[in-house]
Amino acid sequence: MADIKGVRGQRILANALSVVTAGVAVGVLAVVGTASAATSVEKQAKPTIVLEHGAFADAASWNGVIKELRRDGYPVIAAANPLRGPASDAAALRSVLDHVEGPKILVGHSYGGSVISTAGANDPQVKALVYVAAFLPAPGESALELTNKYPGSTLPNALDAVPFTLPGGATGTDLYIKTAKFRQQFAADVPADTAALMAATQRPIAQAALEEKAEVAAWQNKPVWSVVATQDLNIPVEAQRFMSRRAHAHITEVRASHSVAVSHPKTVADVIEDAARATR
Fold it and tell me: Can you tell me where the transmembrane regions are (predicted)?
């Protein structure tokens, strides 16, 4: 009888240990699974930052900002802006946005602000707009009209106008900033060698793009952040303040040239990340 009890006791003990061990294993898996899920959610929770450059620049003008954002774990795309007109340029940007899954933050510099204002409209995946020394046109307004609303822009005297003819016969005028005037006009607080590279690689904008009136304004129904460059010689600082206040933007003023994303990349990245965190 003692032997039977001993066997039964051993079986009971063994079963109990199995249950306890299984429970511990399940608990460990649950903890690991929860941690993995939390990590996965954390990674997925960060929206894609889509950067749109403006006139007289290219996507490389975002390089410093991209480094800061990527260091903090944000997926980033710097789109190429054709600089032909807000409607057509917004269509080009939309073709990029349509291939990006999940939430997005749109960031526009200068004329790029006109483009994101159009491209971001009626898109629920665009969670916020960030304007960097940029235009925030209302429907019916053009970039040229907003520039001339306040004094302070010295851009007209720094421009070269170059006529062009398209293969179909259509004609127009491209605008460049003269190389000798580029740094003072566009990037006064950027190192001279960097400004020289920027001048050599600048993209021209069609004059008609600055005269084209906006049809929609995504900032009218989305959260807005704005970086105002107080030493800007392209878009007068008072014009930037007017547009930003009208859009009820979270405003950060920086003592910087029009190329604030090049001279102060961390400040610009911090504003973008503020927008991303606030809209998650």
Answer: 12-38
